Amino acid sequence: MSLERYSRQMLFYDIGQHGQTLIGKAKVAIIGVGALGTVIANNLARAGVGYIRLVDRDYVELSNLQRQTLFDEQDFNERLPKSAAAARHLKRVNSEIHVDPVVTDVNPSNVESLISDVDLVMDGTDNFETRFLINDACVKNSIPWIYGAALGSCGTTMNIIPGQTPCIRCFIRDIPSPGKVQTCSSAGVLNMITGIVGCYESVEALKFITGSPDLNTKMLYIDIWKNSFEAIKLERDTGCPVCSGNTYEFLDSQVRSYTTKLCGSNSVQIVPHKTGRINFEEIADRMKKLGKVEYNSFLLKFYAGSFELTLFPDGRAIIKNVDDENVAKSIYSEYLGI
Ligand SMILES: [Zn+2]
Q1: What is residue 255's predicted lDDT score, i.e. its pLDDT?
Q2: Do 164 and 293 have their domain in common?
């Protein structure tokens, strides 16, 4: 491996050649390759993190290009999954590291296998359900993770080191009720705040990997429009069900079939009871009589009436222009017979 590429980073007093070697040996999983995840993946790949797993369930949409910095119009036109598009881009940036794209929905049945072999997990998600699941899996397996979130002009981040710091359930006990919190579809988001939070998460990752004593121990809260920056010291909650009680409610609810409304896209995702490899050619042949079908090796798209169904090789589907989960389930069973 050529170290010339990292020379400016190695000149930094707290990294040097030793730190760079540690960075090269590090294995990191990024869960969610959207606004935060693309910034983090770009930073860590350029910094030389030796192994980066990119996990995302979604594909590139036009409205992503405003803030999801690894994607371009070609990725959108090719209808690439986000993790595959990001990996393609990063391999052109740094061919000396290993970038592993995984196109999947993170759920209780697969989260531990996605994180158990890495040193650090990065939060690039946009919802509490997945964060609580990551928190359960990371605390149970003693794997550090870095929480991050952004909305409007505000962002927050915190390092969660099991056994040392509070976990996320110490300070956010429950998932907010539907309609109680703003989402990216209601409040919007500026690309500058997702960039800033992604960069904060990234620098904490480098500090963790290199064993720096300067690892942040506070929760940061930033509003770039209102010019505020706060660092808040949080304590572990002795009543926390996860890090004090060792109960993992989100991980243990081994739900195998469910629907999820996707943030900001008037879409519903369906994960079927049984997953398995889907033969796109066979399905396309059947569905072309019912509407327009197109597919590549990553996904199949089917258009009929006002909705658009995107099917992934494991049987998962995203149905667009539908906001009722039951209608989505009906469409899924109507066209896919499950
Ligand atoms: Zn806790």
Answers
A1: 45
A2: no
